[in-house]
Amino acid sequence: MPRPSFITQAPRPSPGLSRYEASCALFGAGLLVLGRSDPVPGQIQRLMRLRDHLVTRGADEIVLFTDAANVVLLRDPAGLTEDFERFGAPIVFACEPGFTYRLPGGWGVSRRYPPAGGKSGMYRFLNAGAMIGRAGALRRMLDELDTDIPVDCAHTVLHAWFLAHTGRAALDYDQEIFATSACQAGLETRLFEVREGVLRHRRTGAAPYFLHFPAENRICSNRLLDMMPWMRNLPRLPVRGRDRGSYLINSIENSLSWLLDRPAYPLNDWVRVVLFYLLPGLVAAGLAASCL
């Protein structure tokens, strides 16, 4: 059975893209990079570039599209077509614990999502950085996006489409195709393990083909890659100063989501407000009162 075509977009070379290309080379998989000779600005314009490219594809061809600088291929994609078809949907989106929405009313939009539908309760929301589907279905979906909005956010337009078109796309709740590190810094070994020669999710048992690092924390991504002996020679991105501080904070925020097996949104927001704003404020007020 033919493998899906792997597509990404990048206006220029980057360490993250080089890492992605190297991971594909490990398994003999090709990666088409759009935009190198004619870059377009913005997330929504990149979706439109993908739509225009899909016109050149057969309607039934299976196409996989991801971000460029924060994705790696984890294993031989020989069984990917069969695993995609088992979803029974023409489009499958990556699924994550967090929720990104750049317009007012995000809380209400998030409540319209169905409950987490997998073996773990953590993964509930669409992630815009990875999708797979029939080229014709993807093209129609991209044609139907409401892009006349005042923010440049792929998540925002894709959330709106997904909620308005029930049944036309599935979410990868169990991380069977796309695993994500979103809102999971500090949970690397709690959620993942190497078993039977592949990276597996401890809660769902899935062996994902791709690992996506949204808003990549390089401590988190490097720890996950270091778990896999076959990724030993894959390029690592150097840890930055901001990675260290955010990793500590995110590890604290993400713990409650893991303990309760619930999505990180809105739990992480509550943890952040209580631990990093409310409690310090109460302590400061108490100290001030004791000095009077």
TrEMBL record:
Pfam families per the UniProt record, alphabetical: GT_PLOD (PF25342)
PLOD1-3-like GT domain mapped to chain residues: 7-148
Protein name stated in the entry: PLOD1-3-like GT domain-containing protein
Organism: Stappia taiwanensis
